[in-house]
Write a structure and sequence with these properties.
single chain, 335 residues, alpha+beta, Uridine Diphospho-n-acetylenolpyruvylglucosamine Reductase, domain 2, Uridine Diphospho-n-acetylenolpyruvylglucosamine Reductase, domain 3, Uridine Diphospho-n-acetylenolpyruvylglucosamine Reductase, domain 1, 3 domains, 8 helices, 25% helix, binds uridine-diphosphate-2(N-acetylglucosaminyl) butyric acid
């Protein structure tokens, strides 16, 4: 356990917005987590890779920086292996390690910034796969009882960028470990158009998990800004899911609008397309902007404040609502 005071949050979050945290405690074990929660029961915020947070002011709450590391094989047979990762492990490095071992299931989720502990929280997903596909369980410390609890997939209520940890258990659990069951005889998922095109470009007809991994890394590197170069937190908004009749009206007015019918009859729309149509792509105001290649990604070109990015996001939301009557919901959490 290591405590620091007056820490600039720009180095701890991928938006790289300056703000001062009064106290940051780095934790390396479950006992550390319990000790921090015991010492400051009501005002602890949890920080992983800082890749889904927009800081809009100084933070006086204690920040618990998750640094529990490690990977343990829990079960293994000839077909599958279950591995438990410390919540502080880098997500991408963990995926890369699985691919190196020949363990399949998470390869479509390569290069997503952040830590393993944050993955179940918002059920991270990309290129046709969500982490729930391989999720076995996670262990979390209940913030009121300070007891560890094992959460199986059924208890997690995973949905699109959603889980019980964002709803009924919001701010009530500190995830310390996450276990995934991976396949030693993987079936690859390459239906997503971008992935298909990338494989076709290299004439790969029978892709391995390593091929998928490389394709996803190439696509993301081409399309999305690297947070170490330009501050950002990936998709700023979720893709909205709207009623079928609303989607039909929009299609009549905007025949080129892409849309994805959902199992429940509703329709998911790409927020990037809606924002793009409102003319925001590449927009820049001071150092806050909308990425030139992906309208869903807000960026900090250097000295933007969290408030400036927040104001920009609010204006984007308003213009999408006015033009399409669609409410955007943020994926990024505001601190
Ligand atoms: N599009 C535009 N303008 C743009 C960008 C995209 O019109 O500036 C259109 C594209 O033509 C396409 C559609 O929007 O028809 C969807 O675009 P894309 O395939 O790039 O995916 P997305 O829906 O914008 C989602 C995830 C990403 C994930 C990709 C790939 C959400 C909120 N975002 O983006 O996740 O990497 O799919 O699977 O679901 C993240 O969550 O931080 C993230 C980056």
């Amino acid at each position: 356990m290591n405590t620091q005071h007056h820490v600039d949050l720009a180095q701890l979050t991928t938006f790289h917005v300056h703000a001062t945290a009064e106290t940051v405690v780095s934790v390396q074990s479950t006992d550390d987590v319990i000790a921090v929660l015991r010492s400051a029961p009501s005002n602890v915020r949890i920080l992983g890779g800082g890749s889904n947070i927009l800081v809009t002011g100084d933070v006086s709450d204690v920040i618990l920086k998750m640094e529990i590391m490690g990977r343990d094989v829990l079960h293994e047979n000839e077909n599958t292996v279950t591995i438990r990762f410390g919540a502080g492990e880098s997500w991408h490095d963990s995926v890369a390690w699985c691919v190196d071992q020949g363990y399949g299931g998470l390869e479509n989720l390569a290069l997503i910034p952040g830590t393993v502990g944050a993955a179940p929280m918002q059920n991270i997903g990309a290129y046709g796969v969500e982490q729930e596909r391989c999720f076995d369980h996670c262990i979390g410390i209940d913030r009121s009882t300070l007891q560890p609890h094992t959460y199986r997939a059924e208890e997690c209520a995973f949905g699109y960028r959603d889980s019980v940890f964002k709803r009924a258990l919001r701010d009530r659990v500190v995830i310390t470990h996450v276990a995934y069951t991976l396949s030693k005889r993987p079936i690859v998922h390459c239906d997503y158009a971008d992935v298909r095109q990338e494989l076709d470009a290299h004439a790969i007809t029978a892709p391995t998990i390593a091929d998928i991994f490389r394709a996803v890394v190439t696509i993301r590197t081409r399309k999305l800004p690297d947070p170490s170069q330009i501050g950002n937190a990936g998709s700023f908004f979720k893709n909205p899911v709207i009623a079928a009749d609303h989607a039909a009206r929009l299609h009549a007015a905007f025949p080129a609008m892409p849309s994805y019918p959902q199992e429940d009859g509703r329709v998911k729309l790409p927020a990037a397309w809606l924002i793009d149509q409102c003319g925001w792509k590449g927009h820049r105001r001071g150092d806050a902007g909308v990425h030139v290649n992906q309208a869903l990604v807000l960026v900090n070109y250097g000295a933007a404040t969290g408030e400036e990015i927040h104001v920009l996001a609010t204006e984007i939301e308003r213009s999408v609502r006015e033009r399409f009557d669609v409410a955007l919901e943020t994926e990024v959490n505001r601190w």
